[in-house]
Amino acid sequence: MTSARPALLPGLLCLLVLLPTVAPAQAPRPRARASDLGISFGGAPGALNAITDVKGVEVGHTTLHSGGDAPGAPKVRTGVTAVLPRGRDAVAQPVFAATYALNGSGEMTGTHWVKESGLLSGPVMISNTHAVGAVHEGVIAWAQKRNLTWELGLPVVAETWDGLLNDIGGFHVRPTHAMQAIDAARPGPVAEGSVGGGTGMVCHGFKGGIGTSSRRLPAEQGGYTLGVLVQCNYGSRRLLSVAGVPVGEEIPDLRSCYTGAQPPKGPFFLQMKPCSTPGVIKPTHPEGMGSIIVVVATDAPLLPHQLDRVARRVPLAIAKMGGLGEDFSGDIFLAFSTQPTEAVNGAPSAQVAMLENVRLNPLFEATVQATQEAILNAMLVSDTMTGNQDARVYGLPHDRLVKALRKAGRLPPVSKPKPVK
Known about the structure:
- There is one protein chain.
- By secondary structure, the protein is of the alpha+beta class.
- The protein has nine helices and 17 strands.
- The strands form four sheets. A six-stranded mixed sheet has the order 5-4-15-14-11-10. Strands 1-2-3-6-7 form a five-stranded mixed sheet. Strands 13-12-17-16 form a four-stranded mixed sheet, with no helix packed on it.
- A hairpin with a 2-residue loop joins strand 8 and strand 9.
- The termini are far apart.
- The relative contact order is 0.19.
């Protein structure tokens, strides 16, 4: 018995090292957003410039960040994000909804019923590719505890692949993490960047993750609010464009690399170079791999077929940023309206409203504007991260982005102080 204890100790220590640390649901933003840098995509943002500007919408994150310090030790860089259209107090009350896929190399469960019924009940969950089953189970378990099994029996769970930075094959996301993300959901400011499902994501060759933005229409256009939340994990560096400026061409270096003595193993790491190698400018994996999940919320009175039209405008924003909907990219979007959908006082029919189709154009424009800004925010707020197999992905450098935009006349030049006479 005593002779076996030393052999068990290393394994026990390794297990303790790999236990994920659950970070706070709403952490302070460590880096500036697009609006902080003076970058505008048009339109008027809401008070928070977030999806939670749409009344009733709540967002929560569970962030898993852990791993050993030893070179090559598995590292956990993942999590779960929950978007609740009507908040936790009314989570089972359905909203009108629609989904659309630009390219389907990805997963969003529950979409068949959304398309069939035009309704969405429960939260929209986002995590990593290997965590879909665990998150799905977690939503059902959360609903069972509240006797909501039927209403939330077909959870909507979306994913993007975080295997470059996260030990994705370790299946670290468990059903309890999904439950924690739902319980953490709150109105107000939304944590962005390397949080929740976006913790280990890469976007246009820079550190990506969760981003959000909103637009408020003027009173003459209805005064409606539209908000967007993205999990950004798509796109090539060379095509990255911000406000029409080819930023990817202006910042061709700062490519993914590895900090350890040995290169990472796996087909996606074949071209990765040591971080100590100067001038690393070649892609470290086939460009166009990855995905983006986009959730669009609005308080405008839209029916499912109109929300389908809104969701179909999301690809316009992705294209403006340099995305192509490449063959191996999962670009899947969901749009919902928070207008009431249920009959009142047992009435046999519900009274719902529908915005005239000719009045949809401002919402289309708001969708394109807010989606672009949410994508950029996902990169701007994310900082450089070193993850599994010592792979490192750099954050988008704010100073070089601003310099590129100024060079193209998209930002005003730095004013020089007037000489003292």
